[in-house]
Amino acid sequence: MNNLSLLGKKWIFPSENSRENLIENLKKIRGIEECGFHPPEKLKDLEKAAERIRAAMKNGERILIVGDYDADGVCASVILFKTLANLGSKVSVRLPDRAKHGYGLNAEFVREAKKLGVKLIITVDNGISATQEIELANSFGIDVIITDHHISPDELPNAFAIVNPRQKDCEYPEKNLSGAAVAYKLATTLLNQEPITKNSELIDELLALAAIGTLADVCELSGENRMIVTEGLKKIPRTRNPGLRKILANAGLNSKISSEDIGFRIAPRLNAAGRLDSPLIAFQALANKDGEKFADGLEKLNSWRQRLTEKLLAEVEERLGEIGAERILIAGGENFHPGIIGLAAGRLAEKYHRPAIVMSGAGGKFVGSCRSPLPEFNITEALRDNSDLLQKFGGHRGAAGFTLEPKNRAAFEKKMGDYARAKIKAVELIPRLEIDSQVEERSLSCEFFEELQTLAPFGAGNPEPLFHLENVELAEIRTVGNGEKHLRAKIGKTKITAIGFGLGEFAEELGKRGSADLVFQLSENEWNGNCELQLKMVDLR
After folding, report:
1. Which fold does the domain 40-298 belong to in CATH?
2. Is 97 helix (H, G, I), strand (E, B) or coil?
3. Measured between alpha carbons, how far is 22 from 447 in angstroms, rounded to an integer?
């Protein structure tokens, strides 16, 4: 069973393929355990931060929240803004422009805070590495509270308080909280001093936003994150937030919201603002009473983002030419939009199963975005090995970014190519498809689908299960969708519909064969209250 599939992938089957107690076995393998919410006060400095905020509100001090331009940063900003506004605070928000400011807290915002008479800055989803900016704030007599979730440097900034579960001396049990979840912990601490009935609806809304931030930032769905997402998803369909309701409607979502809906339909709309315009559009959509008009703005930006990404990807692939056995893909252009180079790098890495770097030369310097789909290849370590050529860089194992002077571009590309050839073996370039279990066609039922939902929510660390049907009969094979890109068929005796997105090119070959091995995910369509199973084809052989 080790020959490659139609998509050129090697299928990996579990060493033990017990079909009995399948759901319980998957829970055990994935480490899925019931977990509640941990007490916020276990977060180091959280009570200290809360007391400083209460003092600021009592003294009528103006508070400035500084967030980030991605969906997690926007949700975190909305969570804290709504909380402080609800408590009567004088509060305003600043979100960095991706091209102008870069990531997180910057000196421009600190100087503006001084002019406005701000005495307290609170960062959300950033700040843990803003040592110089916080020293500047301190020199102006401005206290800074950091709330963040990124990896802490060895030497922490001299902030008034640092709330980050990844701090070395923080004993909080869940280390993988999103920026929005950390903001939620601080928000509920502030709100829970008030009568709970007064703020229960607001707390529900904040939990929904924390779930969106957690999924948008691809945090592992284990431990408390699983609880945040599970409970937060329940709140989203009932939300009274006008902007969020409009975003859901624009995305075609209604009563049932899944983690996949957030990751592939809601998060891209929120991220589109920071990629192509101002992240404040996404903030206003979620924070304003008239958020609907901003939600419509996000819809237009997201459509534009999709068109730009497809155009950029085509141009990048044309420049790369024949991929062959190249270990790393690197492309750059002065006309590449800096807001979507990360999307292009991600698509290349996924399609060709190797590290990819896409650079934009706009603004007189090259800004690069990197992705690595290989567990064996840490893209940030690769940048660190060549950091003498970079102005700055940062990231983690699978994704990173950097800035580069144009004069160093050729040397950087050569050194990264040499580094990748030394580190990556040819066999690692063959994409692998990890299959959870083989199943028989007769076991596919609505009852089985309902059992599968006990594994949800799905996401990082808990992907939607992949199943294998061996030598299944395919009938009524045809192409569907815009450009006939997708494949549709009926399987075996049950005649369950199977849909394969992007697999339309194989329709003719499959029609001649009449059967195939199939890897799929199980989904359900509801029609007038009735259950109708559908297979989402992932690969064929």
Report:
1. inorganic pyrophosphatase (n-terminal core) (3.90.1640)
2. coil
3. 13
**For the chain, what is the mean pLDDT?**
93
Task: Confirm if 5 and 11 have CB atoms less than 8 A apart.
Answer: yes
Question: What is the side-by-side order of every strand in the sheet holding 356-360?
Answer: 329-333, 356-360, 366-371, 399-404, 390-395
DSSP conformation letters of 451-516: HHGGGPSPBTTBPPP-EEEEEEEEEEEEEESGGG-EEEEEETTTTEEEEETT-GGGHHHHHHH-EE
CA-CA distance, 359 to 342, in Å (whole number)?
9
Identical fold for domains 40-298 and 322-429, yes or no, is no
What sign for the dihedral angle of Cα 454, 457, 458, 462?
Answer: negative
Helix axes 280-287, 291-320, angle to 10 degrees: 150
With contact defined as beta carbons under 8 Å apart, do 359 and 367 qualify?
A: yes
The encoded tokens of residue 38 equal 């941990």
Please state the domain extents for the chain.
Answer: 10-30+435-540, 40-298, 322-429
pLDDT of 198 reads: 62
Instruction: Assign 301 to helix, strand or coil.
Output: helix
Take residue 316 and report the two structure tokens written for it.
């990048």
CA distances from 60 to 55, 83, 354 (A): 9, 16, 54
pLDDT tens for each residue of 103-123? 889 999 999 999 999 999 999
322-429 placed in CATH 3.80.30.20: no
Question: Integer distance in angstroms from the first to the last C-alpha of the chain?
Answer: 10
Give 10-30+435-540's CATH code, choosing from 2.60.120, 2.30.110, 2.40.50, 1.10.730.
2.40.50
Q: What is the dihedral of CA 308, 314, 315, 318, to 10 degrees?
A: 180
- Give the residue from 424, 326, 430 showing the smallest Cα distance to 379: 424
**Does 2 have pLDDT greater than 60?**
no
Per DSSP, what are the bridge partners of residue 518?
469, 540
Query: What amino acid occupies position 71?
Result: A
Q: Which residues pair with 403 in a beta bridge?
A: 367, 392
Q: Alpha-carbon distance 310 to 332, whole Å?
A: 16
Summarised one tens digit per residue, pLDDT across range 216-260 is 999 999 999 999 999 999 999 999 999 999 999 999 998 889 999
Strand partners, 524: 533
